[in-house]
């Protein structure tokens, strides 16, 4: 019953505000290395995509951050996948903007970091 209620809530939320997607929560076993704020975006110049911020919870400045964005249906099943890059470095404790093109609209999206390179160990900054 709980999963039916959740699925119904997701479906209603998708129709009320289809362009807003909640940030991913940290893993249950502790803070995640990365977290995301993302939303669907459609611009005349870039087309349909997902944009937002990736938050770096590592003690290193990182670069060459490659992202995966999965499109999900109302049941949470993956219906597609896209890849993209974060432009520039992401400070320890900081955040950086990204835009990843997607081929079709989805009920929700899930982002993850595929790979990155460490630049240097640094004191974390306070992200907004």
Question: Helices and strands in order, then pairings?
Answer:
Blueprint: H1 2-16, E1 20-21, E2 34-43, E3 47-56, E4 60-72, E5 78-85, E6 95-101, E7 108-121
Antiparallel strand pairs: 1-2, 2-3, 3-6, 4-5, 4-7
- How helical, in percent, are the residues? 10-25%
**Architecture (CATH level 2) name:** Sandwich
Number of strands: 7
Broad CATH class? Mainly Beta
Provide the number of structural domains.
1
Mind summarizing the main beta sheet?
Answer: 4 strands, antiparallel
**End-to-end separation:** 37 Å
Order of helices and strands, N to C? Answer: HEEEEEEE
What is the rounded Rg? 15 Å
- Global outline: elongated
How would you state the average pLDDT, rounded?
Answer: 80
Question: The CATH topology, please?
Answer: Immunoglobulin-like
Percent of residues in beta strands = over 45%
**Helix count, DSSP H or I runs of 4 or more residues:** 1
The computed structural class is mainly beta
- Write out the strand line-up for the largest beta sheet, numbering strands in chain order: 1-2-3-6
Low-confidence parts, pLDDT < 50 over ≥5 residues? 2-29
